[in-house]
Amino acid sequence: MKLSRTVAYALQATLQLAETDSQSPVPCSKLAAKGDMPERFLLQVLRNLVTHGILRSTRGVDGGYTLVRPAEQISLLEIIEAIDGPMDSRLPLETEVDTSFQENLKEALASVTSAMRQQLADIKISQLVTKSSSTPRPGIAPSPHIAATSLNEASVPVRQGS
């Protein structure tokens, strides 16, 4: 599974907010600076997360962003689908393959997509905060924040079998 840069920024910002463990709003500029993300682009990402009920936006001098719910109640799936839309297993309409093969392929892809959605729904932001804060990376001093480019390094539990 490949995550878009937009999803990586959304996950990074959400992790940063979960790590603050505070109800005080965090400005976009601070999230962008700590996560090494472009502020103007991050602002669009954060607005999308507000629209989907994951973050709360507070205006004003002391304004910024906070999580709407505890990190234990926000899943990876919610964030990914808030940014990229629902995960699905549709085939291109112009697929020129045998109809029975196409049906079998649709069925197999639907099964894989369902399993992936369930696993992503089971992984909560709080689990990633704990891992990102406590897992030292070779050659890098432990930090409470992970860079957006290092999300690929975050270990995520994967279930084998069914």
Automatic annotation (TrEMBL):
GO cellular component terms given for this protein: cytosol
Output one GO MF annotation.
DNA-binding transcription factor activity
Which residue ranges does the record annotate as region Disordered? Answer: 131-162
Matching entries from Pfam families are given as: Rrf2
Note the NCBIfam families from the entry: rrf2_super
Q: Which PANTHER family match?
A: HTH-TYPE TRANSCRIPTIONAL REGULATOR YWGB-RELATED, WINGED HELIX-TURN-HELIX TRANSCRIPTIONAL REGULATOR, RRF2 FAMILY
From the Swiss-Prot or TrEMBL record, give the protein name.
HTH-type transcriptional regulator CymR
Record the organism.
Answer: Blastopirellula retiformator
